[in-house]
Amino acid sequence: MMDHARDLASVREATDRLLTAAAKLDNAAVAEPSRLPGWTRGHVLAHLARNADALVNVLEGRPMYVSEGARDADIERDAPRPLEVQLADVRQSANRFQDAASVSADWSRVVELRNGVTDSASRVPFRRWIEVEIHHVDLGIGYELEDLPEEFMQREINFLTERFRDHPGVPTLVIKQDDGRLIPTGAVRSVPPEQIESGHHLTVSGSRADLLGWLAGRRDGSALRVDGGTLPALPPL
């Protein structure tokens, strides 16, 4: 089981970093495009606030969102708000999440997220940490993938390779980090372990930031080295 209390502390620290950085913006900057297609910075901030409330729902046994349409409508509704209102909403919703996640509970229980995805309750704080860190980068205000905490980068790479493991749309491949660590993903169950170990497979290598960027759909992978084939297109998260 994950250390949910430690992850909660990391979520708090990441949220404080994001709020401190975003406080340097102004209303015009909030209305400018973020790095996510079709979203302004206001959309990103609104999503962060509504995601915190959605994860409170998850922890308290309610549906994460009423519907996908309602989720999208809430973000569109909140995106045009002034900076001061955005920051207050992100801060207050983050506090609600911290309060809900600090209640004594069975952290081994299974909870349901979006699209029927289930997970251990103990991993919900880490999922929130992902949202805060990656969307801080998405704001495009000077916080880059290279600035992410090292522990977070490694755990997010592990999380994403696990997510793509046995995915029908991802070929068998091995992620090779610059520290030499090998992480198989894609259709690994269809290939004998000895073939993976022998090196007869597609290998994608590079820095942790570049690997994470490609796996998370934030970079095109052009900085990565690919051996044994061409870099595959990953399905959307």
Major β-sheet strand ordering: 4-3-5-6
Which regions have little confidence, pLDDT < 50, spanning 5+ residues? Answer: none
Main sheet overview: 4 strands, mixed
Radius of gyration: 19 Å
- Tell me the overall shape: globular
With helices defined by DSSP (H or I, 4 residues minimum), what is the helix count? 9
Rounded mean pLDDT score: 93
Helix-residue proportion: 40-55%
The SS-based structural class is alpha+beta
Termini separation comes to 24 Å
Beta percentage is 5-15%
The run of helices and strands is HHHHHEEHHEEHEHE
- Tell me how many strands there are: 6
Properties at a glance:
237 residues; alpha+beta; four-stranded mixed sheet; two-stranded antiparallel ribbon; 9 helices; 6 strands; 49% helix; 10% strand
